[in-house]
Amino acid sequence: METEINILLTSAGRRTYLVEYFKEAIAGEGKVHVANSQTCPAFAAADQWVVTPLIYDKNYIPFLLDYCRENRITMLISLFDIDLPVLANHRNDFFQIGVDVVVSDPEVVELCNDKWKTFQFLSRNDLLTPKSFLNPKEAKAAVRRGILSYPLIVKPRWGMGSLSVFQADNEEELDIFYKKIVREIQKSYLRFEAEKDPSACVLIQEKIDGQEYGLDIINDLDCRYQNTIPKRKGAMRSGETDFAETVDNEELKSLGEKISRLLNHRGNLDMDVFEADGKYYILEMNPRFGGGYPFSHAAGANLPKALVSWERGISPKEEWLTVRPGIKACKDIKILVMEE
């Protein structure tokens, strides 16, 4: 009989598929719990669920600690960027009660969540990334010098998906979208992130036209590199991959390995890359399960099983960390009946 593993997925939202993957991974030797700040689709698939305080509420961490104690949680995994820094800063509190929070170090989480710091990190390490600026004045000056050209992407410095992301085709639109995003940040959960630097909370970025790829860069629980799984994106919906195909691309795999060894992240890292004129530009890095992971899973990978094995001190099967190239998959929409 395997060691019982009780897993808590926080900020689970619509990631019903991940709940199902983890239930399969523990094979009845434990339960998969789901937490979210409001009722969400993932509740329908969970063995047990709970509504939590908001992430930035002072009672959020104490609530989770109490829940973990009461339900003998073994492993906690967050599925939301904004959750990651809070959990990373309290990882030791959970460790003290026997809970392994699968999250990277606070410095890694901050670097990935802050797109300006991501840009600086990639530039320092001679990795291609879109040119980025923190205010319209600097961006306009770069356009005048010929360093930059319209259209430009204007988006929150912190955030995820397609929230408040706009394309500015000229100077007038740049000014309008910049002010609009500042207002929208103050109305959303991003206002807490923006408090770190309220005068520089919007990123203005070069638009790269080309083929987009999503990479799952997999490290084990000791931050050791395992593999990179590249996928060619075919369609997007609300900032998430809707259709993709696994590919065998050695350049992308080498790029993923380099990022792994530079960051030393823990578990999965979801990275977006654009190919333009034969060059690969890194757009974003998210140290968590991303919306593109199901395409890796559909092609044969099983990171939930690997994580459970590592948690048990067992080496995972090699096939759980690899995929078959050329597997095409797409996401579907279905209705879930929520029962009390």
Radius of gyration: 20 Å
What portion of residues is helical? 25-40%
Structural class: alpha/beta
**Alpha-carbon distance between the two ends:** 32 Å
Silhouette: globular
The main sheet comes to: 6 strands, antiparallel
Order of helices and strands: EHEEHEHHEHHEHEEHHEEEEHEEHHE
Low-confidence stretches: none
Q: What is the residue-mean pLDDT, rounded to a whole number? A: 93
If helices are DSSP runs of H or I spanning 4 or more residues, what is the number of helices?
A: 12
> Strand tally, please?
15
Strand arrangement, largest sheet? 14-13-10-11-12-15
- Which strand-content bin applies to the residues? 15-25%
Descriptive keywords:
alpha/beta; six-stranded antiparallel β-sheet
Short structural description:
The chain has helices at residues 16-26, 60-70, 83-89, 91-95, 106-113, 115-124, 136-144, 171-187, 190-194, 250-263, 293-298, 303-311; strands spanning 7-10, 32-36, 48-51, 75-78, 100-101, 132-133, 152-156, 166-168, 202-206, 211-219, 225-237, 240-246, 268-276, 279-286, 328-330.
